[in-house]
Amino acid sequence: MMHQSYKHRGSRSRGGIGSVILCLIVVGLGGFLVFRLIGWFRTSNEKAVATQAETLDVVTLSSPVVLDGSASITGIDGALAGVVYRRGSEENAEYNVVLHLPALALNTSYEVWMVKDGLADVQSAGVLETRADGTFAKVFSVQCPVEYPNVVVMVEPNDGVSTPSGNIAAQGAFADTDE
User: Fold this and answer.
1) Exposed/middle/buried for residue 16 (C-beta within 10 Å: 0-12, 13-18, 19+)
2) What is the reported pTM?
C-alpha cells in the first residue's frame, strides 16, 4: 500500500510543479510583453513629440534668405570690367570677383570696398591679387551683405591707411538683395 500512496503523491506533486512552472512562464512572458509595449509606446511618443517640435520650428521660424547672384562691374569708362559672384545667406555671403583692369604703378593696388547705399558706410573686402593671365581676382566674405549692395574698386596707395582713397577704378551693384 505504501507503494500506491507514494505513486499517488508523486503524480500530484509532479502536477503541482508543472503548474507552478507553467504559471512562472506565463507571468514571465506577460511581464516581458508588458515591458516591451511600454518601451514601444515611449519610443512612439518621443518620436511624435520630436516630429511636432520640428514642425513647429519649420512653421514658426523663417528660413534664411539665400543670396545667389552676380553683379556686373564697369570701369570708369563705362566698359564691362568683370563680374562679382555672390553666394551665401543674408547674414554672411562669399564673393568671388574677377576683373580686367589696367596694370598699376608700383606702390599702388586695387582694393575692393563694399558700400552701403548712399555711401553711408564702407567695408573693405581686401586687395585684389594679380593673376598670371593679367586679371585681378579676390575671394572674400562679408557679414550682413544685404546692407552692402554696392561693390567699388579703388586704386589705393600701399601706405597702410584703412580708409578709401576715393580714386574709383570700377564699380557695380547687386540689383536685388534677395535674389
Assistant:
1) exposed
2) 0.60
